[in-house]
Write a structure and sequence with these properties.
Zn(2+) binds at residues 52, 152, 156, 162. Helix 3 packs across helix 4. The protein is 15% helix and 27% strand. The structure holds 2-acetamido-2-deoxy-beta-D-glucopyranose (NAG) (9 copies) and zinc ion. One 2-acetamido-2-deoxy-beta-D-glucopyranose is lined by residues 435-436.
Length: 701
């Protein structure tokens, strides 16, 4: 009997391996094509204004300047049922980016006069500005569920046109008219500064609102050529807001602080961001730019900027076992009640030295603050800057306290901290740290699998990074067999995996990290009829951990065009030859229910009983009046007081083509930012000089 069982299993195994070979190992949500907003909309045959802007008939294109086209700082929204589950999760992540980097916030609609209805229409589009139409639509259709696409559409809604339609754009880019598909030339119009205010911000090649070089092209040659050739592959980025996008948004809306950003410190200034040395400890943290036992340089600048590059160092070699050094942040005032503390830590001391993170929380009863231990970081790897995330849940004013603690064993160095960031956001659940990264790009060895991780619900998973392609890097999410599989629900329902390639810019607000999310759909089937997200031990293939342990890996789900190699080498994605991929896998099942229409107010029933909404519209109370919320579909919607009128994309888009264009050559001087240390923000040169620098860094560790 036993023997029979065994041979049956063996037979089953070989079957699986064979079927694994027949079906491709990974499912590509983009089909191997990097589709920008404009490609998606064009593929659908939409002829929207400038590719993704919905104009209403009466729009006098004066929008961005007029006060009355602005939204309140907190924008009411409704996530319609038509949205894909993954899109709903990504929209909420995009709102978090607005909260971190701007003063714009979002709240579920509770009957305010004007709100944004985010729905799954055909393609990705929005109107420009607050149109005061009550329910204003913003479409996140198929394949629009990328975070930067959603940021882009909401920037339209907030009042922004495309960057290359600025009046002064011809000073910065050349439009190659003969390469544009005939009939699409109007998408390259410019507006004079009465219509589109550039808010005294220079032309921005890195804007998330800029077309890419391939927009509306007929053939393979670019339609937009940047006058500074370095920017040719920079335009059209869809990663995150650029610095100037933020500056403009913050100027238009008078933002002075963001909702969720709290503090950051790279220790470049002598005041160390108001941090204070603790009392009652044995020694102090020192602000230095190089420690005898390492690190040789700070993390912010990696020693590449002369006369700067500081970090804080606790020298554990000069104190006895058990000695401590305490560093406290300035007083901080939380708004949201949950925080993520991030920092880089370098250990050149003993393997048993540790860093303890405390919170000193102040309240009416506790004017001197009470100290609570949040996390003890032990077994800190030596010889490398390590990224740490610590989750805090503080509601009263507080300080963050870093306590270095000398362990046993010999120490020739100590602990160093740099690039601290504190924001009221959720920490990523896992970090995949990849070392020696550069040589893997484009090489056949560039097939990487992350260690095994567990989601908060207990699902085991793994991330696969494919760098072997010549131009693009691919990223995939795999469920794998894990310890809790017997207790979990299969096929795995609605777990959203968010994979972020971290831009290691020291300032969190200047980071443009590249992020993609995918969601497990329990109803999805593979070609042969089995469930895609079924238990890996049932549908997965055999694989091995580096330590030789066997496991089963489900098929990958992701994209082969996560990021181009060109962009991967830009900004601060690779720092000291290290790359960090942040991973969060969370349950979003709760998003599969209709958003509560409105907060029940007394008399809501009575008001709604007076009217009948047609065509399945739902009654809601807004400004003490009963109004109808009308249903929408792929490319149609109902409107009117009682949802009595039907509209569709085909009959309402009015393309106003004629526009006299006055080009103001205001910016004659192109401000060239030539300092090396800021230059690398746009594009890291791979000159032999830079290569040498990277190598130096590598040996330094
Ligand atoms: C694209 O270019 C070809 C060859 O120049 C031309 O025949 C065709 O009409 C163009 N198509 C569009 C949509 O402009
Ligand atoms: C921003 O400030 C200006 C000048 O103080 C004011 O006129 C304008 O209304 C403000 N805009 C918003 C959106 O608050
Ligand atoms: C707070 O500290 C001050 C000075 O150290 C002390 O005088 C005071 O009694 C303390 N208050 C409380 C409530 O512990
Ligand atoms: C957080 O932002 C600050 C801004 O100066 C930066 O110095 C610091 O390095 C950042 N920390 C991390 C861990 O990203
Ligand atoms: C990185 O490369 C160096 C030199 O080639 C090697 O000594 C080191 O072990 C590598 N590190 C990792 C983590 O692979
Ligand atoms: C990695 O990408 C290359 C090129 O796109 C592809 O041929 C290969 O099958 C991929 N490998 C895996 C393991 O996905
Ligand atoms: C479909 O393929 C999976 C593995 O990819 C295999 O376990 C399953 O038995 C197959 N189902 C059918 C109906 O062939
Ligand atoms: C091998 O590695 C896996 C994943 O990291 C781990 O779960 C397993 O316990 C390890 N096996 C042994 C024998 O160490
Ligand atoms: C939500 O759940 C119901 C029942 O579980 C299911 O029928 C429906 O398809 C789900 N909706 C979405 C958008 O996935
Ligand atoms: Zn757009």
């Amino acid at each position: 009997m036993r023997l029979w069982n065994l041979s049956w299993f063996l037979f089953f195994d070989s079957l699986l391996v064979i079927s694994g070979l027949q079906t491709p190992e990974s499912f590509d949500i983009d089909g191997g094509i990097d589709q920008d907003i404009f490609d998606i909309n064009e593929g659908l045959g939409l002829d929207l204004f400038e590719g993704d802007i919905r104009l209403d008939g009466v729009q006098d294109r004066n929008s961005i300047i007029g006060e009355n086209y602005r939204w309140p700082h907190t924008i009411p929204y409704v996530l319609e049922d038509s949205l894909e589950m993954n899109a709903k999760g990504v929209i909420l992540n995009a709102f978090e980016r607005y909260r971190l980097k701007t003063c714009i916030d979002f709240k579920p609609w509770t009957g305010e006069a004007n709100y944004i209805s985010v729905f799954k229409g055909s393609g990705c589009w929005s109107s420009v500005g607050n149109r005061h139409v009550g329910r204003q639509e913003l479409s996140i259709g198929a394949n629009c569920d990328r975070i930067a696409t959603i940021q882009h559409e909401f920037l339209h809604a907030l009042g922004f046109w495309h960057e290359q339609s600025r009046s002064d754009r011809d000073d910065y880019v050349r439009i190659i008219w003969e390469r544009i598909q005939s009939g699409k030339e109007h998408n390259f119009n410019t507006y004079d500064d009465k219509v589109s205010d550039s808010l005294n911000v220079p032309y921005d090649y890195t804007s998330v609102m800029h077309y890419s070089k391939t927009a509306f092209r007929n053939g393979t040659e670019p339609t937009i050529v940047t006058r500074i050739s370095d920017f040719e592959d920079v335009i059209g980025q869809r990663m995150d807001f650029s610095d100037y996008d933020l500056l403009k948004l913050n100027r238009l809306y008078n933002c002075s602080s963001s909702l969720s950003f709290m503090d950051s410190c790279d220790f470049e200034l002598e005041n160390v961001c108001g941090m204070i040395q603790g009392s009652g400890d044995n020694t102090d943290w020192q602000r230095i730019s190089r420690a005898p036992g390492g690190p040789e340089s700070d993390h912010s600048n990696m020693g590449q900027c002369q006369g700067s590059g500081f970090f804080m160092h606790f020298d554990s070699s000069s104190v006895n076992m058990g000695a401590t050094a305490v560093l406290e942040s300035r007083m901080l005032y939380p708004k949201r009640g949950f925080q993520c503390l991030q920092f880089y830590l370098y250990n050149s001391g003993s393997g048993s030295d540790q860093l303890n993170i405390y919170i000193r929380e102040y309240s009416a009863d506790n004017v001197n603050g009470s100290l609570n231990l949040v996390e003890e970081l032990k077994d800190i790897p030596t010889g490398n800057w390590q990224l740490y995330h610590v989750t805090l849940k503080v509601t009263n004013k507080f300080r963050v306290v870093f306590e270095g603690h000398r362990g046993s064993g010999a120490s020739l160095g100590g602990l160093s901290i740099d690039d601290i960031n504190l924001s009221e956001t959720r920490c990523p659940h896992h970090i995949w740290h990849i070392r020696n990264f550069t040589q893997l790009i484009g090489s056949p060895e560039g097939i990487l699998y992350s260690p095994a991780f567990y989601s908060s619900k207990g699902y085991a998973f793994q991330i696969h990074l494919n760098l072997s392609h010549l131009t693009d890097a691919g990223i995939y999410f795999h469920l794998i067999s894990g310890a809790n599989d017997d207790q979990l629900q299969w096929p795995c329902p609605w777990q959203q995996a968010t994979m972020t390639l971290l831009d290691q810019n020291p300032d969190i607000r200047q980071r443009m990290s590249n992020q993609r999310s995918v969601t497990t759909d329990p109803f999805m089937t593979t070609d042969n009829g089995s469930y895609f997200w079924d238990r890996p031990s049932k549908v997965g293939t055999v694989a091995f951990f580096p330590n030789g342990t066997e496991f089963r890996r489900g098929r990958g789900y992701g994209t082969s065009t996560f990021i181009t190699h060109e962009r991967l080498k830009s900004r601060n994605f690779i720092k000291g030859n290290d790359v960090f991929i942040l991973l969060t896998v969370e349950d979003i099942s709760h998003l599969n229910s209709t958003q509560d229409p409105s907060v029940p107010t007394p008399g809501i029933k009575d008001l709604c009983s007076e009217i009948t909404c047609q065509n399945d519209g739902i009654c809601a109370v807004q400004d003490d009046k009963a109004v109808c919320r009308c249903p929408v579909g792929e490319d149609w919607w109902y409107m009117g007081e009682r949802c009595e009128k039907r509209g569709s994309t085909r009959d309402t888009i009015v393309i106003a083509v004629s526009s006299t264009v006055t080009v103001f050559a205001l910016m004659l001087i192109i401000t060239l930012v030539s300092v090396y240390c800021t230059r690398k923000k746009y594009r890291q040169r791979t000159s032999s000089n830079a290569v040498n620098k990277t190598l130096e860094n590598e040996y330094a560790f």
